Structure formats: structure tokens, C-alpha cells
Amino acid sequence: MTQEKKIEMLEEMLELNGGSLKPEMILSEIPEYDSMAKLSLIVMMDEEIGKKLTGEDIQCFKTVKDILDFMG
């Protein structure tokens, strides 16, 4: 899966306009990245990517790139 496709998936999950996320963006500075988004991320990783994501994993994510890297 391309990085662009992964970013599109994250933008859709966060209900953001296409092209609004960049890999270098800090997650804590994205208002839409809240506790509900984190739960959605866990579900998306399991259903779409086939990876188990834990709360510990999420706490380690600092940038959009960290999530993209985890996605593989």
C-alpha cells in the first residue's frame, strides 16, 4: 500500500479533507486526533491493515509518520 493511500485512510477516519495530513505533522496538534479517533484507529488497523494496535502503541505515536510506519 502506498503512503498516499495510507494518508487517505487516516484522513477519512479523522473526517479531514483530502490533502490535509502530512507525515511530519504532530498528532497532538491535530484537533480531530482525539480519544474517539484513537479508538477508530485501533479498529481500522485491525480490519483494514490486519495489525493489532494497543494503547501502548498509540502512546508512542508522535507524528503522522509514526502511524504510517506502523501500518507497514
Low-confidence stretches: none
Q: Say how many strands there are.
A: 0
Radius of gyration: 11 Å
Q: Percent range for helical residues? A: 55-70%
Morphology call: globular
The percentage of residues in β strands lies in under 5%
Outline of the structure:
The chain is mainly alpha-helical and 72 residues long.
Overall description:
- The chain has 72 residues and is mostly helical.
- It has helices at 3-13, 35-49, 55-60, 64-71.
- The relative contact order is 0.21.
- The model has no long low-confidence stretch (mean pLDDT 96).
Offer a few descriptive terms.
mainly alpha, 4 helices
Topology:
Elements: H1 3-13, H2 35-49, H3 55-60, H4 64-71
